[in-house]
Amino acid sequence: MRKVLACALLLFAVIGIQAAEITVFAAASLTDSLKEIAASYEKQSGDKITFNLGASSTLARQIEAGAPADIFFSADEAQMDSLAKKGLIDPATRKSRLGNTLVVVVAADSTLQINSAADLTNAAVKQIALADPKAVPAGVYAKAWLTQQQLWPAIEPKVVPTENVRAALAAVESGNVEAGVVYKTDAGISRKVKVAYEVPAKDAPDISYPMALVKESKQPDAAKNFLNYLDSKEAGDIFKKFGFVLRD
Amino acid sequence: MNLLLKNISLPLANFTLEVNVEMQKRVTAVFGPSGAGKTSLLDLIAGLRRAQSAFIQLDENVLADTAKNYFVPTRRRGIGYVPQDLALFPHLSVRQNLLYGRNSRVATGPLFSFEHVVEVLEIQPLISRGVTELSGGEKQRVALARALLSSPRLLLLDEPLASLDAPLKEKIIPYLARVRDEFQIPMLCVTHDRFEALALADEIVVLVGGQVLQTGPVLDVFNRPASAEVAKFVGVETLHPGQIESVNEGLATVSVNRTTLTALAPPTASRDVFVCIRGEDVILQHAAAVASSVRNRLSARIVALRTEGALVRVELDAGFPLFALITRPACVELALREGGQVTALIKTPAIHLVPR
Amino acid sequence: MTSDEWQIVWFTAWVSALSTLVILPFGLALAWALARRDWPGKSIVETFVSLPLVMPPVATGLILLKLFGRRGGIGGFLHDKFNLDVIFTWRAVLLALSVMSLPLLVRAARVAFEEVNPRLEQIARTLGAGDWRVFFTITVPLAARGIVGGMLLAFARALGEFGATIMVAGSIPGKTQTISLAIFQNVQLGDDTHAYRLLGVSVVLAFAAVWCSELFLRRRKK
Predict the structure, then answer these.
(1) What is the Cβ-side half-sphere exposure of residue A216, based on CA atoms within 13 angstroms?
(2) Tens of pLDDT, residues B176-192
(3) How far apart are CA C61 and CA C52, in angstroms?
(4) Looking at chain A, which terminus has fewer C-beta neighbours within 10 angstroms, N or C?
C-alpha cells in the first residue's frame, strides 16, 4: 500500500514538474475571449498558454516560415486551407466552432447615420478602415459583403487597409477615419466606438473560425488537451459572452 | 582722417586690450609683436568684434559707443579690410571678387573707377582668372583692389607684407605707396616689420601686450623710444633720412647730412631713403687708418653712454646721430667717456636703405 | 514589373524628392544656426534634431500620429480650419519622410557650413553685404558640396522609410504605398515574386543615391 502511494506521489510530482507551455497563433479578433479562456484553463491544467495574436494571414505566413506554433486558430477557412494544403496542420484535429457578425462602427461621438450598406457611399464618409481585404479574413469578409451588395467599386477608393481588424478598430477610435467594418465582437470591447449598422445574416458571407493542431508542435498532447478545452461548454459560454456565434 | 579710439577694453586670451588713442595722420601703422592684439584692434574698428567697452569715432561718425549701446554694423561702416590671409572668395573669379563691394548702397567714400584701380595695381591681365591660380603677390594686389573698389573711407591692412618673401615685399611696397598717394585714402596698417612701418606710415602706434606704449611720428618713435620695452621692439638703433647721390656697380653712395656712406644699392630707383643701422653692427675703435675691408669709417664724438644690462648703448655724433651697442668690458677697455672721440666702423651690407 | 509596381516606384521617388525639397529651407536655417551661433539650450536643440535618427521609427511615427490625427493638436487645427486631413493620405507620407530624413540633412549641412572660413563672410560684410547676401553669395556656394551630399543622403533615407510611414499613412495601395510598405505587404500576402522585384528596385535606387551622396561628401584630396 505504501509502495502504491509512493508511486502515485512520484507520478503526480513528475506530471506537476513537467507543466507544458503551449503557443497559440490566433486571429486578432479572438484576443479578449481567448485570454479569459486561457486563464481559466491554466488554473485547471497547470499548463501555460502563450499567444501570438494578429491577422490570420500574417500568422499563416509565419507558420509556413517555420515559426514555433502549437495551435492555429484562424478567422477564416481560406488561411487554414492554405496550411492544410502544405501539410502543416493535423486535419484530424481541425474543427470550426465559431462564427461572427460584421458591423459598421463609427467613433462614439460621431453623428454619422449608417442605415444600410449604400450609406457608406455617401460623401460624408471619406475614408473607411478595413483589415486588408487582400488577405486578412475580416477584410476579405467585408469585401465579399460589399461585392455582393454591388457597392465595392464605389467604396474601394475610400478604403484604408489596416494590418489586422484591431488596427481598423483603432483607426475608427482615433477619429482619423469616418467609419470601419469590423466584427461585432471587436465593437463590443471598445468604448470609443459605437455600432452604426449590423450586417444582417442574409447579406453577410459565412464567417467561420477553424482551429487545428500544428503538425510540427513540440507538445502535441498538451496542445490537443487545450483544443478539447476550447471545444468545451465552458469555453463556449465565454465565447458567447463576448458576442461570438456558436455554429454547433 | 581722424580716428578716435577711446576706452577700448577687450579681454583676450592672455591679456586685456586697452586702448585710448587718436590717429590723425593719413597713414598710421600699428606696430608690435605677434599676439599683441593688433588684429583684434582692426576687427573692433571694422565692427567684426564687439568690445566690453568701446568708443570708436571716424571723422564725424560714431561707429560704436558701448555706453549708449550704440553699434553700427560692419556693412554700414564703409571700412575696407585686407586681412592677413587676404580672404579672396575662392568660388568667384577675380573680376567677381573685385566687383563684390560695388553694389552696396553704402558708398561712403569716394568712388574709384574700376579701370583706374586695375591700372594702378596692374592687375589687368588677371581679371578673368580664377582666384586659386594667382601667385602670392597677385593675390595681395587683388585683395587691395577689391577693398578699394568698395569706396571705403578708411582702409585697414593686416600685415600686408608678412606672407611675402623679401624680393616680393620690395615689389609690393610701391603699390601700397601708390594706393596711398593716388587714392588719398586714410590707411591703418598693422605690422610687426619696422621697415614696413617706415616705408608706409606717417604715424605709428606701438602696441605691446594689449597696451599702447607710444604713439607719434614714425621717426620720432624709432629714434626716441619712450622706454626700453619700446626700444626692444623697435629694434633699430640708427634711423636717419638720407639721399642716394650715385649708384655704381651695385653700391650706392648715400649722403646723410654731410657725411657720406657706402651701402648696397636698393632695387628701387628712389633717391630719398631712410638709412637704418643696427647698433650691433657698429664697431668702435681708437686707431684710424688701418687697411681693412670696412668701407665706412666715421670719426665720431661720444654724446652719451647708457648701460643696458650686459651692454652699453653709445650715442655718437658722426655728422648724424649714430648708435652703437657694445659690451661693458669693451667700454671699459677702450676707456670710453662722454665727449671723447672714436672711429665708428660700419660694414657696407650693414647699412639698410629704405625708400621714402 | 507591372504598371502597379511602376506606380509604387514613381510615387516613392517623387514623394521622397518632394520631402527633400520641403525640409531644405528649415534644415539649412537650422544647420546654419547650429554652425554659426551659440545660445542657451543649444545642446537641447541639437539632441532633438538627432532624435529621429536614434528613436525607433515607429515611435516617431506614433508621436506624429497623435499630433496630426484629427484629434491632435496640429491635425485638429488643420481639419477644423481648412478641412485638411493628413493621416492616411499622401501628406502623411510626406510628413513621415520629412521628419525622418531631416536630421541627416542638418548634420551634413552643419559640417559644410562649419568648414566655410568665417573670415570670408566677415570680409564680405566689410564690402557692404547684408546677412542674406553673405549667406546666399558666400556661405551657401562654398558649402554647396556638403549641402548637396546631405540632400542626397536625406533622399536615400526617405526612399527607404518604413516605420513612421506605416504608422501615419497606412499602406493604401495606389495612394500611400511606398516601395518598403509594398514589400512588407507582399511578403505578408505570400506574394514573394512581387516583393523581390520591388526589393531589386529598392536596392538599385538606394545604391545610386548613396553613391552620389558620397561623391559630394567625400573630402577632396588636395
Answers:
(1) 16
(2) 888 888 888 889 999 88
(3) 10
(4) N
Domain containing A112 equals: 102-198
Residues A13 and A75 in one domain: yes
Report whether pLDDT(B168) > 80: no
From chain C, pick out residues whose CB is under 8 angstroms from the CB of A79: none
Enter the DSSP assignment of B76: G
**Same-domain check for residues A45 and A168:** no
CA dihedral (A112, A116, A122, A128) positive or negative? positive
Domain of residue C30, residue span? 3-217
For the domain that residue A214 is a member of, what is the CATH number? Answer: 3.40.190.10
Select from A211, A223, A230 the least CA-distant residue to A23.
Answer: A223
**Which residues contact residue C58 at a Cβ distance below 8 angstroms, ignoring those fewer than 6 apart?**
C163, C164, C166, C167
- Does A113 lie in the same domain as A179? yes
* Domains identified in chain C, total number: 1
pLDDT at residue A215, rounded to an integer: 93
Tens of pLDDT, residues A78-131: 999 999 999 999 999 999 999 999 999 999 999 999 999 999 999 999 999 999
C222 is a domain residue: no
Last-in-domain residue among A163, A180, A198 = A198
Cα(A226)–Cα(A243) distance, integer angstroms: 21
CB A235 within 8 A of CB A229: yes
Distance CA B143, CA B141 (A): 5
CB contact under 8 A, B87 and C138: no
| Confidence (pLDDT) at B236 | 62
Residues of C with CB under 8 A from a CB of A: 65, 69-71, 75, 85, 87-88, 170-173, 185, 187-190
* Chain B residues within 8 A of C129 when measuring between CB atoms: 75, 100-101, 104
Q: Do B79 and C127 touch (CB under 8 A)?
A: no
Residue B135 to chain C, least CA–CA distance (Å): 18
Note whether A12 and A69 are same-domain residues: yes
Q: What is the pLDDT of residues A181-206, one digit of tens each?
A: 999 999 999 999 999 999 998 999 99
What are the chain B neighbours of C117 within 8 Å (beta carbons)?
Answer: 87
Please tell me the distance in Å from B45's CA to the nearest CA on chain C. Answer: 11
Cβ burial B59-75 (10 Å sphere, 16+ → b, else e): eeeebbbbeeeeebebb
| Helix (H) / strand (E) containing A226 | helix A220-230
ipTM of the complex: 0.82
What pLDDT, in 10s, does the model give residues B17-74?
888 888 888 889 998 887 778 889 999 999 999 988 899 998 888 999 998 999 999 9
Please state the domain count of chain A: 2
> Are A64 and A106 contained in the same domain?
no
Average pLDDT, integer, range A225-229: 93
Q: How many CB atoms lie within 10 A of CB C62?
A: 16
The set of chains that have 3 or more CB pairs under 8 A with A is C
Nearest CA among B291, B282, B295 for reference residue B249: B295
Length of chain A: 248
Does A87 share its domain with A117? no
C220 in contact with B, Cβ within 8 Å: no
CB contact under 8 A, A57 and C189: yes
Rounded to whole angstroms, the Cα distance separating C157 from C102 reads 9
Return the partners of chain B (3 or more C-beta pairs < 8 Å). Answer: C
- Domain membership of residue C102 (yes or no) is yes
What pTM was computed for the model?
0.79
Burial string for B30-45 (b: 16+ CB within 10 Å, else e) reads bbbeebbbbbbbbbbb
Cell of B218: 614714425
What distance separates the 2 farthest-apart alpha carbons in chain B? 72
| CATH code for the domain of C18 | 1.10.3720.10
B and C touch per CB criterion (3+ pairs under 8 A): yes
Amino acid at A5: L
